[in-house]
User: What shape does this take?
Amino acid sequence: MSAAESLADRAAASPILTVQGVSKKFGGVTAVQDVSLEVPRGAIVSVIGPNGAGKTSLLNMVSGFYRPDTGVIALEGDAITTLRPSQIAARGIARTFQNIALFSGLTVLDNLMLGRHVHMRAGVLSSALYWGPARKEEIAHRERCEEIIEFLKLQDLRKQQTGALSYGLRKRVELGRALALEPKVLLLDEPMGGMNQDEKEDMARHVLDVNIERGVTVVLIEHDMGVVMDISDRVFVLDRGRRIGGGTPEEVQRTPAVIQAYLGTSKGGGQT
Ligand SMILES: Nc1ncnc2c1ncn2[C@@H]1O[C@H](COP(=O)(O)OP(=O)(O)OP(=O)(O)O)[C@@H](O)[C@H]1O
Assistant: This one.
């Protein structure tokens, strides 16, 4: 057995994240219905599907923003289904949002510092105000953030207010803020949405670097099929709340139900 095979086998034997029989209704609308999937440790996993398929609802349940009506979500074998978002973040699941959610009046560095709140004993405000242990802690957090800023090649912009940055750069800062949490699993909701081709390629490169160099497992919602098929180890397909496919990018592209529901439509092969 090759090293790569044994690694793949180990990952399959103990997925880092499992979603089992999860459903969610909003009034009469079934957003997610009986969805199960496993995310191998160290993988990049994409969740695709047409608009309204339930992708963001699923991510919102994994990150604790919605509570499933049924089913179990587990991180490293421990159920997290009923935990609050802050507790889930503290367990090591970070996320970015479909719409940029940065503090536009704060600098790049300060936005990343806020991303570390789950690690701060002293709290952001007291760290900013006091010397002594809180000051020492703040310096350590700042160093971690500076390192992430360099990793994402944002060093020239560290003191700039994020509101003044281009859309693509703000998306990169959001990625940095999620990384500042030092997550085991990173949930990215359309990180390339609204980007031009160059910005998309940059972001795809950063996502790959995060995965390979920092060993972070990535769960990605993305409409750009070129990017999805290029960078994903596994792809899961939702349609009207149900899982209709899953496997390697090659397997998914050959699944008739997927081709019919998504890839074969006029949206197939490009963006929705
Ligand atoms: N908070 C909510 N209240 C009511 N309905 C909701 C809520 N969140 C999601 N829905 C509904 O659940 C369904 C799935 O929506 P969701 O946003 O999860 O889909 P999606 O696959 O992420 O779509 P998109 O690609 O457009 O972002 C939709 O019919 C949506 O209107």
